[in-house]
């Protein structure tokens, strides 16, 4: 009977499941792209007398304005205009022709008097609703003010009325983009590029819109076309990397990121993304090199800790040690909790190297710094359990079980302690608790069944004893 109990006992083995160790490399990669630079230049400059189509009664005023506009002396031109405006009038622009109101609006825009410019341009459109250039100017005014719905209304109207310059369609693409009408943005940008094929503004807008509509093949073709013209711009390689990730082409993404980094991009998110890609393909040396560079750039230690949580279970001790050495160089910058995490990781390396005394010292210091460090509590409990210091181990598991992230592992650890001490009823109770909390742990069913047999056999043995 005793032999049967020992046989069953050997088959009961509790594994401490480490959760989420590869989260640092399995998580979605984030690539930081350069912010687009939009230069919202006027669609047209203030009109001269010949271009404005002024009425005969306005020719004297036009004669005085013409040299000032030619010299771009807009403050002086504004003084001339203001001398003609009745400040007490409810509609001071009503007496001017649409052409002159357009000129006035442009002058006011040039002198950054936006509200007055809007009034002048609206007056021009009230007099002449199909005034294409007034719609263009008013659309740009609203665009600069980030009133995108109004901007689209006037820019679209200008296009409908026959406006055909590249800037008009480019700005229409931009306002469509800002209002999340990405399909409309694509059409407008393509029209702008037909008229001005090398305009970087419209190229970057089209690229952004293609990515937003998940047309990754077209986006990649556009980026490659731009790189053929200029392959020394890091931003284009970053766009290529982002597109490649969306297409699940890690190799292309990695190559593109590496080129961006070699061309001078040191953005923290991109260093991390490149490191994660190297981890995915098993290129540890380059991954560690990049991660150490990210430490210099000021990376959050919690990110490095996720990488360590991936390296240590895979017994990548040397690489984990390199990272920890890099962290140690900036020890004073770490919070108390982060220092406790570092000590916990250093203890793992010490245990792997057979330096149990160093490991114990590191774990005790980690817990002293942060009594709530559940990982350190679990690891120290495991060390004590291995040394058959069961009481200390059980107390540590109980402390760790107060943390949701460690609850299951702490219960399993205490269950293993109970098995080691031949306390099968307690072990069975603990495993049932774990199974009740996490029904997905089907791997425990066999252990529970074996322990139930052991408990039953033990009870029968005691009843049969003389």
Please write out the topology.
Blueprint (H helix, E strand, L loop, with lengths): L1 H10 L11 H4 L22 H4 L6 H12 L3 H9 L15 H13 L3 H14 L4 H13 L3 H13 L5 H13 L3 H14 L4 H13 L3 H14 L4 H13 L3 H13 L5 H14 L2 H13 L4 H11 L5 H12 L7 H17 L3 H14 L4 H13 L3 H11 L6 H14 L3 H14 L6 H21 L2
Structural class: mainly alpha
Alpha carbon gyration radius: 36 Å
What form results from the Cα inertia axes? elongated
Approximately what portion of the residues adopt beta-strand conformation? under 5%
**Please, how many helices?**
26
Helix content percent band = 55-70%
Mean pLDDT, all residues = 82
Largest sheet: none
- Uncertain regions: pLDDT < 50 for 5+ in a row? 1-12, 14-27, 43-52
Q: How many beta strands in the DSSP annotation?
A: 0
The helix/strand series, from N terminus to C terminus, equals HHHHHHHHHHHHHHHHHHHHHHHHHH
Concise overview:
The chain has 466 residues and is mainly α. Helices cover 70% and strands 0% of the residues. The chain is built from 26 helices and no strands.
Tell me about this structure.
- This protein is mainly alpha-helical and 466 residues long.
- It is built from 26 helices and no strands.
- The radius of gyration is 36 Å and the shape is elongated.
- The two termini are 15 Å apart.
- The model is unreliable at 1-12, 14-27 and 43-52 (pLDDT under 50).
Looking at this protein, list some descriptive labels.
single chain, 466 residues, mainly alpha, elongated, disordered N terminus
């Amino acid at each position: 009977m005793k032999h049967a109990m020992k046989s069953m006992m050997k088959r009961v083995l509790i594994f401490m499941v480490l959760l989420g160790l590869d989260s640092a490399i399995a998580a979605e990669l984030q690539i930081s792209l350069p912010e687009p630079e939009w230069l919202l230049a006027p669609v047209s400059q203030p009109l001269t007398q010949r271009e404005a189509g002024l009425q005969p009664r306005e020719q004297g005023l036009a004669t005085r304005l013409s040299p000032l506009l030619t010299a771009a002396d807009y403050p002086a031109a504004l003084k001339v205009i203001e001398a003609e405006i009745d400040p007490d009038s409810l509609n001071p622009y009503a007496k001017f022709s649409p052409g002159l109101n357009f000129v006035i609006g442009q002058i006011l825009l040039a002198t950054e008097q936006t509200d007055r410019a809007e009034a002048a341009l609206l007056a021009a459109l009230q007099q002449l609703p199909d005034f294409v250039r007034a719609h263009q100017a008013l659309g740009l005014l609203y665009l600069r003010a980030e009133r995108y719905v109004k901007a689209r209304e006037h820019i679209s109207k200008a296009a409908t009325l026959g406006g055909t310059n590249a800037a008009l369609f480019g700005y229409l693409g931009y306002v469509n983009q800002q209002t999340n009408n990405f399909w409309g943005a694509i059409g407008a940008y393509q029209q702008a590029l037909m008229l001005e094929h090398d305009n970087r503004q419209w190229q970057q807008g089209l690229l952004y819109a293609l990515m937003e509509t998940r047309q990754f093949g077209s986006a990649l073709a556009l980026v490659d076309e731009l790189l053929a013209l200029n392959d020394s711009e890091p931003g284009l390689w970053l766009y290529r990397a982002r597109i490649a990730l969306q297409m699940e082409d890690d190799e292309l993404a990695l190559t593109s990121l590496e080129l961006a980094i070699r061309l001078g991009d040191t953005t923290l998110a991109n260093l991390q993304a490149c490191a994660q890609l190297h981890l995915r393909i098993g290129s540890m040396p380059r991954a560690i090199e990049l991660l150490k560079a990210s430490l210099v750039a000021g990376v959050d230690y919690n990110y490095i800790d996720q990488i360590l949580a991936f390296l240590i279970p895979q017994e990548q001790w040397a690489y984990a040690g390199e990272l920890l050495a890099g962290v140690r160089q900036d020890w004073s910058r770490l919070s108390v909790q982060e220092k406790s995490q570092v000590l916990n990781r250093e203890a793992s390396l010490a245990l792997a190297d057979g330096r149990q005394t160093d490991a114990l010292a590191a774990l005790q210091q980690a817990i002293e710094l942060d009594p709530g460090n559940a990982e350190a509590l679990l690891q120290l409990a495991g060390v004590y359990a291995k040394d058959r210091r069961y009481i200390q181990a059980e107390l540590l598991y109980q402390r760790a079980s107060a943390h949701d992230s460690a609850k299951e592992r702490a219960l399993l650890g205490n269950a293993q302690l109970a098995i080691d001490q031949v306390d099968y009823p307690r072990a069975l109770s603990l495993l049932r608790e774990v199974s009740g909390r996490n029904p997905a742990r089907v791997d425990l069913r066999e252990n529970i069944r074996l322990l139930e047999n052991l408990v039953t056999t033990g009870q029968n043995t005691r009843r049969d004893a003389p």
